[in-house]
């Protein structure tokens, strides 16, 4: 076990500046207890940029891990400084394979809060990553041991511990407990909630379950999401309650680009065979899921009206 002594001084302006402002839009609050490994990590869902995550380390042998999609270019940052977090935090970033990227215990000599700044070791490549939050002294390990070195407490560390060459497999050490908020930049929701328009041009979206025709479905481009980045062949559409019943085969084998809502942005239009969608009599909405070219998962629903 390691020990440290930190003198906490209020009003350290240089550190507070590193904290992004936490706005209501683009934030995520831990649901239940987030897992602590990539396979059990919580995946925040929302639209556009992910600007903050709030949660709690509830037991002494706990850490929380979240899946984020980074925009790359070294723009990612994460901090508990200036967010109202109390206690001794630690932040760890892992790539999609679970390999360590960077870590920080103390953002400076006069704070026990943590910061992973933009630039430096912040990833240049966009895509899916995992951010873990723990309290001192709960540290990630692989089959080879500690992924990140214990010391120094300040500064950003790469995966230079004895286990740094292998993916995370667990955690070691006992920590304190408490709530946290992590402010973020350069991150987006990996599960994007998109705007869906079933039967564009119709306000009631009628669906006749007896027809052997197709249902046109548009994914709309918004200021937060470019619908043309969705892989048309990845989309499954249909029953809102049971995703396994949805049709995952676009009727024409491709989507087409069209500005269906007249806002000057290109939208993605797809078609699915009505009788393959799993939509049932009495259903009032239908949903879709898919994948964007940057690895983000997309999901969205729209209302429908079942007609005779």
Itemize the secondary structure elements and their pairings.
Layout: H1 13-16, E1 27-29, E2 45-46, E3 52-57, E4 64-70, E5 77-79, E6 89-95, E7 100-104, E8 115-116, E9 127-135, E10 139-142, E11 145-146, E12 170-172, E13 178-185, E14 187-189, E15 191-193, E16 195-198, E17 206-208, E18 214-220, E19 236-239, E20 256-258, E21 267-273, E22 285-291, E23 297-303, E24 305-307
Parallel strand pairs: 1-3, 2-15, 15-23, 17-24
Antiparallel strand pairs: 3-13, 4-9, 4-14, 5-8, 5-13, 6-7, 6-9, 10-11, 10-12, 16-18, 18-21, 19-22, 20-21, 22-23
Describe the protein.
By secondary structure, the chain is an all-beta fold. The protein folds into two domains: 13-189, Sandwich (Jelly Rolls); 194-307, Immunoglobulin-like, CATH 2.60.40. Helices cover 1% and strands 36% of the residues. The protein contains one helix and 24 strands. The protein has one helix at residues 13-16; strands spanning 27-29, 45-46, 52-57, 64-70, 77-79, 89-95, 100-104, 115-116, 127-135, 139-142, 145-146, 170-172, 178-185, 187-189, 191-193, 195-198, 206-208, 214-220, 236-239, 256-258, 267-273, 285-291, 297-303, 305-307. It has a five-stranded mixed beta sheet with strand order 1-3-13-5-8, with no helix packed on it. Strands 2-15-23-22-19 form a five-stranded mixed beta sheet, with no helix packed on it. A hairpin with a 2-residue loop joins strand 10 and strand 11 (145-146). The model is unreliable at 5-24 (pLDDT under 50).
């Amino acid at each position: 076990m390691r020990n440290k002594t930190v003198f906490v001084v209020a009003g350290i302006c240089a550190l507070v500046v590193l904290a992004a402002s936490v706005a209501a839009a683009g934030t995520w609050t831990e649901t239940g207890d987030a897992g602590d490994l990539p396979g059990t990590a919580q995946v925040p869902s929302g639209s556009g940029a992910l600007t903050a995550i709030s949660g709690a380390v509830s037991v002494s042998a706990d850490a929380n891990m979240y899946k984020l999609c980074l925009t790359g270019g070294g723009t990612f940052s994460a901090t508990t400084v200036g967010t109202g977090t109390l206690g001794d935090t630690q932040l760890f970033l892992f790539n999609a394979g679970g390999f360590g990227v960077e870590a920080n215990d103390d953002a400076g000599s006069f704070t026990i809060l943590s910061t992973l700044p933009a630039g430096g070791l912040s990833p240049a490549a966009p895509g899916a990553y995992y951010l873990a939050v723990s309290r001192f002294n709960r540290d990630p390990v692989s089959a080879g041991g500690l992924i990140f070195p214990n010391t120094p407490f300040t500064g950003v560390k790469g995966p230079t511990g004895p286990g740094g060459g292998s993916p995370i497999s667990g955690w070691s050490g006992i920590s304190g407990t408490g709530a946290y908020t992590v402010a973020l930049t350069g991150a987006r929701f990996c599960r994007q909630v998109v705007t869906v328009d079933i039967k564009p041009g119709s306000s009631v979206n009628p669906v006749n379950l007896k027809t052997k025709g197709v249902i046109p479905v548009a994914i709309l481009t918004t200021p937060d999401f470019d619908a043309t980045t969705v892989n048309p062949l990845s989309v499954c559409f249909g029953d809102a309650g049971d995703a396994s019943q949805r049709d995952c085969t676009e009727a024409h084998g491709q989507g087409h680009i069209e500005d269906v809502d007249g806002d000057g942005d290109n939208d993605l239009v797809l078609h699915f065979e009505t009788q393959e969608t799993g939509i049932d009599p009495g259903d009032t909405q239908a949903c879709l899921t898919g994948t964007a070219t940057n690895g983000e998962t997309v999901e969205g629903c729209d209302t429908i009206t079942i007609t005779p």
